[in-house]
């Protein structure tokens, strides 16, 4: 029998057993976990924001739908299509989930999609380091559909690693009749399966919600193997007028990694006759995110900043990985000490911790989906909102080059 490579490596001194022991007693901060080399990914968490929009035409579709209930359904459909990228793409690509790079404060991941939906721009920024939090803004230029959000993770250990996502996303859909729609989106909890076998992968748990200013709410229920359908990565969802959970307008069932079906009405009436749509990821290839070549990137852009680490991971040179990571970490520590001494804080490039208290979206829609008015700001370093003024400024500022770039790289990345 063939041994999966990751198991072979774990056995051959990868330290998997020691790693398992260490997680049994960890403090909930995932970034503090020291994982064995073979499980290290060269992708930083700032890149994960792109998973929200790997099908830009599905993302933008609600803008063209005049009926508010169907618009809410298209938003739910888009959300469900993102789950496969968000939670299964690493395992599908590498055979198992990996430990992403822990972003430094101010780390950026910028890109765009150019396809049938026109241009869709992605901005992702690490807005907090302690606790780690990533904020993002994605705008489709053609329709004006825009997603912004921020997230952090709180982990606990009970049989395996259990992760609660803290934060939320807000989707804005322009509508022909005045005010744009606002959709408040909560994030599912997850746990890691396959940990003891050295081949971790994600299963989603519990429920998540999308509730809209137009008066619709979607509830998504997640379940794994041995529960309900007995298939892994299962989901069911219902869309109903807010407050009337029994009044199901549409229901969805299937697997977030495979296909799911949308029917009108409650699930008990599902038949070929009321099938609205079947989503099959195999029939809907993802659109490619365009990222600037590394030497044209801002020095704080993720792939440029982590390049040496990424190259070393790819070559399996783990001493170099350690040395290069430590350079960034200690330069960052120094920078924080310096800022403190000078009484300043790191200026986020695209986001601002909202001083609006209460936050309008959260006051209006938060209670429907059990989100606090303050957006769990204490656990994410702030209630982060996209700052269009800062963004306009960033867009009109040329990327630092030459001495200016070298100074940043030295000061902030220790390279
Ligand atoms: C691989 C095991 C052993 C190490 C633990 C790695 C942890 C840090 C990884 C594994 C899966 C990861 C999650 C996978 C997907 C997402 C969705 C994204 O929108 C935000 C980040 C988030 C929520 C990741 C956070 C970090 C995470 C929980």
UniProtKB/TrEMBL annotation:
- Highest taxon, organism lineage: Eukaryota
Gene3D superfamilies, alphabetized: 1.10.287.2720, 2.40.160.120, 3.30.70.3490, 6.10.250.1430
* InterPro entries tied to this protein: OSBP_sf, Oxysterol-bd, Oxysterol-bd_CS
Q: Which Pfam families match?
A: Oxysterol_BP (PF01237)
* Family classification: Belongs to the OSBP family.
Q: What is this protein called?
A: Oxysterol-binding protein 4
Give the source species: Podospora pseudoanserina
Q: What is the lineage of its organism?
A: Eukaryota, Fungi, Dikarya, Ascomycota, Pezizomycotina
